[in-house]
Structures are given as C-alpha cells and as structure tokens.
C-alpha cells in the first residue's frame, strides 16, 4: 500500500514498469446511451456490453509518477510500431 497525492492509501499496481493504482469510474455506456435523449435521464435500454444497465465500470490506471508513465507509454508505442 502507498499513499497518493491526497494521502489516500492505495493498493499499488504496476503498468509498463511504473507504480500506480487503479480507480474505477462508473460511466454511461457509450454503446447504448447518448447522454440525454435516450440516456440515463429517461432510462437506458442497455446492451450486452454493459449488462443491460446503461452503465459501465471503467478501470483507469493512475501512475504515482505521471510523467514517467507517459514516457513509458511513448516507449511502448514505439516498440509496438517497430517492425
Ligand atoms: Zn450498453
């Protein structure tokens, strides 16, 4: 465990060799809601992707050292594009 910038204890995870943690966002399912007209306001229809809830859980990696992680991402991109 490690404290983040706000002093919250986080379970340390690793991505691309960088330490960080995961946060889970709940967001409108982009597959079946359109932010209003038929979205959450009037009750989404849902789809298979979101389990017919209209809402999706998205896991986002947050690195303790954001710049190092950004660099690691760029390196990874280069590596993937290399023939
Ligand atoms: Zn959906």
Task: Furnish the topology, listing elements before pairings.
Blueprint (H helix, E strand, L loop, with lengths): L1 E2 L5 E2 L2 E3 L2 E11 L26 E9 L2 H16 L2
Bound molecules: zinc ion.
List keywords for this structure.
3-stranded antiparallel β-sheet; binds zinc ion; alpha+beta; 19% helix; 83 residues
Quick structural summary:
The protein is an alpha+beta fold.
Strand content: 25-35%
Overall geometric form: flat
**What count of structural domains?**
1
Ends apart, CA distance between termini: 39 Å
Tally of separate helices = 1
Provide the low-confidence segments as ranges.
none
Mean pLDDT: 85
How much is the radius of gyration in Å? 17 Å
- State the major sheet: 3 strands, antiparallel
Please tell me about this protein's structure.
- The strands form 2 sheets. A 3-stranded antiparallel sheet has the order 3-4-5.
- Helix content is 19%, strand content 33%.
- The protein is flat, with a radius of gyration of 17 Å.
- It is α+β, with helices and mostly antiparallel strands.
- It has one helix at 66-81, and strands spanning 2-3, 9-10, 13-15, 18-28, 55-63.
- It has one domain.
- It is built from 1 helix and 5 strands; from the N terminus they run βββββα.
- The longest helix has 16 residues, at 66-81.
- Zinc ion (ZN) is lined by residues 29, 31-32, 46-47, 49-50, 54.
